[in-house]
Amino acid sequence: MAQRLKGKTVVVTGASSGIGKSVALEFARTQPDDLKLIITARRIDTLKEVAKEINGFAKGVKVHPVKLDVSKPEEIQSFVGQLPDEFKEVDVLVNNAGLVKGVAQAPNIASEDIDVMFSTNVTGLINMTQAILPIYKSRPDGGRGDIINIGSIAGREPYQGGSIYCATKAAVRSFTDALRKELIATRIRVIEVDPGQVETEFSVVRFYGDKEKAKKVYEGVEPLTGDDIAEVVVFAAGRRENVVLADTLVYPNHQA
Ligand code: NDP
């Protein structure tokens, strides 16, 4: 696998914490001598810490931290337009940035929470994909690269109080499936990884910073870690080109 990822340029969105940070670290662990890693999120100071951590154990990895809010199309445009030359030839995009706001029955969900979930989880992911695809398609070999979308069990099994978040992840699923079909004649792989419960800042964001409530989400289940998902993502990227892990659901044991 290490050989297949050698020299690759990887973009990870939402790499300042949780699954995205784990994905960035796992790519660096797997390919410590020759990897270009573009890590993005809104919290640039935290991203710089992640870059420092990576360079502490993987001196050969070139890390480029970029402040990027995926819900802002103009930021995505300038992100791609301003990539330094040595990072321009992106091979792998991991669309991980995402969030959930609140737990509420559908009629009571604030419209700003609906907007933020859709503009981040859905439109942000689509805009990132549209921005990177021309790089893949312009390759002389007829188009090559990986799009790896982080969906969720919530996109397959909607739950009460999570209608909007679940709808965003169902939208990710439909978009990913359709894109895979559209690109079937190319060497571009479209991959979805759907985590079950993973312990990250996610629940804290969901309850607007209330850590006590966040803890209760995991009662009765030993949640996955970000590293568990990162291993699957990097495994998918490291398969030989003809192998597409199109659709992988990763549960913690005992999650109903
Ligand atoms: P975290 O809250 O730990 O991480 C979310 C990441 O997304 C952060 O790095 C955050 O960075 C970034 N982010 C949020 N909004 C934006 C934005 N508008 N633009 C750019 N970056 C943004 O949660 P997870 O690691 O758990 O979540 C990662 C993905 O995994 C999400 O798509 C989530 O839906 C999915 N998922 C999580 C599960 C879980 O149980 N934890 C289960 C199933 C799926 P910053 O704040 O710096 O911008």
Automatic annotation (TrEMBL):
The keyword tRNA processing does not apply. It comes from the Eukaryota. Signal peptide: none annotated. Keywords: NADP, Oxidoreductase. The keyword Oxidoreductase applies. Pfam families: adh_short. InterPro entries: NAD(P)-bd_dom_sf, Sc_DH/Rdtase_CS, SDR_fam. Belongs to the short-chain dehydrogenases/reductases (SDR) family. PANTHER family: ALCOHOL DEHYDROGENASE. This is NAD(P)-binding protein.
